[in-house]
């Protein structure tokens, strides 16, 4: 009986019940204060249509499916298109993941009844190849879709990279060809290739505004140039540094393009010591900023110290900098000299030399700096207070690990937080754990 009941819920069928039991489920008596008999009964079945729909929108998928078995009217509301515009397919293998998974019967029901209603869709997979292949199989069946946003998310290692390129490209092509209204795509760490990008822009060039595709080794600079040349409404772009070039920046700076708002660049060392990073010319950066003066240029660095040589030797219009590994004093000195547009800086690690001079130079020259985070670094209390004093109240975020700060003859840690709080204009304490 239990198994039959679960099957009925998943298939959204109303299980056979007596009128009495049905009435017991749909009608409840009592006042708001909990006193029985003081108010007339509340007939949940007669709630206005829009109220039930709103309640369903707040329910988790499993609870929504259970609620749909209460009565025929609730079952009909369960299938209203508004409830299926936004959906996340959770695909995981019980043997390799603790994550919950969308039931296969429900997936097939969605494909059969709601494929043309889906608009904001994401696929969350675990580290198994089977989960990524299951996502591709679902994508291949969305032939009547009108998707606006699409996200492919690997919760562990990038399992989409284990799917054959032909299978992945074929699945994406179905969505790219049939949607014709894609505005936002997040497909990091996937076997996306240049031909797939050409299909994308051929069918969605007028609507595409956001494209995140970092760590896609099968995409070449030519593929990105194709996007830049045809998607004139592109607002946000995320890619690997190896694809970035002077030619691409100039293409994004041409008159036919609207202003780019966000450019994210991941600078990652796959083979330490074996890759020599190229340098982008200052003229190319200047052209981009002249065309899009408010563009945020975000750079994430995961390099070893000896691999930074190509960066920040001349002025670079970066606004947000994140260093996931140790970065040298010399590199931080270059940032202070050559990054005048800097808004946010996060340094996860450095050597054992105090960074007082480097921070003060950054405070002097980076007039837009509003957020700072320091992890395994060292700064004297006096140097840190001087940095805060120069930045003043514009530092809206200041996350500094307590062990970063070195007490000196002028300031103890107890006195430091009072002095820093005074210059910030709000109460501040060092962090026990990083908050970035």
From TrEMBL:
Compartment(s) of residence: Cytoplasm; Nucleus
Gene3D superfamilies cross-referenced by the UniProt entry: 1.20.1280.50, Ribonuclease Inhibitor
One Gene Ontology cellular component: mitochondrion
Start and end residues of each F-box domain: 41-87
Keyword rRNA-binding part of the UniProt annotation: no
Keyword terms of this UniProt record: Biological rhythms, Cytoplasm, Leucine-rich repeat, Nucleus, Repeat, Ubl conjugation pathway
Biased composition (Polar residues): 26-41
Top-level taxon of the source organism: Eukaryota
InterPro entries for the chain: F-box-like_dom_sf (IPR036047), F-box_dom (IPR001810), LRR_dom_sf (IPR032675)
Annotated pathway: Protein modification; protein ubiquitination
Region of interest called Disordered, as start-end residue ranges on this chain: 1-42
Gene Ontology biological process terms in this record: regulation of circadian rhythm; rhythmic process
Coiled-coil segments on the chain, per record: none
Protein name: FBXL3 protein
The species this protein was found in: Atlantisia rogersi
